[in-house]
Known about the structure:
The chain is mostly helical. 58% of the residues lie in helices and 5% in strands. It is elongated and about 90 Å long. The protein starts with a helix and ends in a 5-residue tail after the last helix.
Amino acid sequence: MTGAKRKKRSVLWGKMHTPHREDIKQWCKRRLPILEWAPQYNLKENLLPDTVSGVLLAVQQVTQGLSFAILSSVHPVFGLYGSLFPAIIYAIFGMGRHVATGTFALTSLISANAVERLVPQSNRNLTTQSNSSVLGLSEFELQRIGVAAAVSFLGGVIQLVMFVLQLGNATFLLTEPVISAMTTGAATHVVTSQVKYLLGIKMPYISGPLGFFYIYAYVFENIKSVQLEALLLSLLSIVVLVLVKELNEQFKRKIKVVLPVDLVLIIAASFACYCTNMENTYGLEVVGRIPKGIPPPRAPPMNILSAVLTEAFGVALVGYVASLALAQGSAKKFKYSVDDNQEFLAHGLSNVIPSFLFCIPSAAAMGRTAGLYSTGAKTQVACLISCIFVLIVIYAIGPLLYWLPMCVLASIIVVGLKGMLIQFRDLKKYWNVDKIDWENSQQIKIISINNPLVFLNAKKFSADLMKIILKETDGSQALDDVSKCEQNTLLSPLPNGSCTEEASQPCPSEKYSLVLNCSGLTFFDYTGVSTLVELYLDCKSRSVDVFLANCTASLIKAMTYYGDLDTEKPIFFDSVATAISVIQSNKNLSKDTDHSEV
């Protein structure tokens, strides 16, 4: 009997603990996605395309690493480290199969603000000129990378805190137009930062409000100092890059391996510069000395974290948003899912850990992701293979890059941003998709309600809406607060047309109509419903027809139950387009019968 009890207890003990072990296993797979896809990796089908993609990605990582390190106001070699360690960490913790983490233009620009503020160029002469024990670099260079590493460390910590707080669930607020606008704006700033290298102009560091315009103002003021050799080499490089990349795109189905024109151009330009001694003969700026190897880890200076808090928040949010957009795009294209919160963990660790290895802030970049798409990459193995070639550059090929002209490097960066710059064309797409919201129908005002309507905001909602209505119906001049209420988070009023030449003067002979788009009204209480009904009755007394579109069944039921609504004609419609169609047909009917309700 005792033995049977022991056996029964052991069975119960096993049942109690087996699910626990399974939970741990599932948690590990969820937090370490490499454990999920690596055992299922198909060597026969995926290794060759991943290898080809990895080699070409390494070229991108090296060129962008060098350039974005300079953009971040640190020594170019630190950009190579920033192209290596974050990519390895993301391959372990990240879920985007075509997301290549590394140096990123916008995070480099943000960290440069902290570097130039805390360790300005004027400090170069104040620090000791003797080389340090770290790769033979000066103390000035180490101070600068210390600031950039501190920005990376604190930015990563902020991302990890967001992971713990599960803020990845709030990413639905990051719409495609917002992300597109941000990345396109970043691309224009990066192109602007490369102008001095493209033209060969010596330019001081310019930042702050309107810094974008001050840079071009400085260029035009010093147009006579443009270096002709740098300008011609830049134009030649851009033409070659664009032509070859377009040919690769045109014939990518006929050729199995695309020509790595970036690599060919780097080798050719470096060799030509070395043979002709352009640095001394023409004064052409080159990349300069790239030390071999990787220094031992060193903690970023913790005493300056409070001084870089603003830049750290910028790196954390901008880097995550840009990277998440690429991960979601990859998941949508190749039919798999991405955990938005897990991406916070992946990018947080990709910033925190490399900050101890002399790395600048990291994020994913559209150019690298597009490159992985075009070369047929299958998994994160392509990124890991690229890391092998980046290591080869760091330990063997790096010193040969001394002669690479900066104008050629800038040309590669500018052409690589083509995909982001052409997003300006999306403006037309967004306009066409949302043209119903920009309807120029006569005497129709469309207003979107984008938040819950409850007792906390009902009063302000009513006041803001009435200001808009009074402005239109009374033909009054713009009120002082109208511009403010039109930017209110609750209301999104969109411009309407007019049957007269004065847009602010409504036609007295036509009835004014208001369409409330309730698609964003996800929650309401009694106060919210009563506010809507009272607004409807108030507008009706002012000869303003009110129609509600995209209402939930519960909202229709609540408003109907509240009472006092006009039951003679419908006021609820399935869409804004349907409401507008009914309004226009009613107007045409009233014109035919020469009848006016005013």
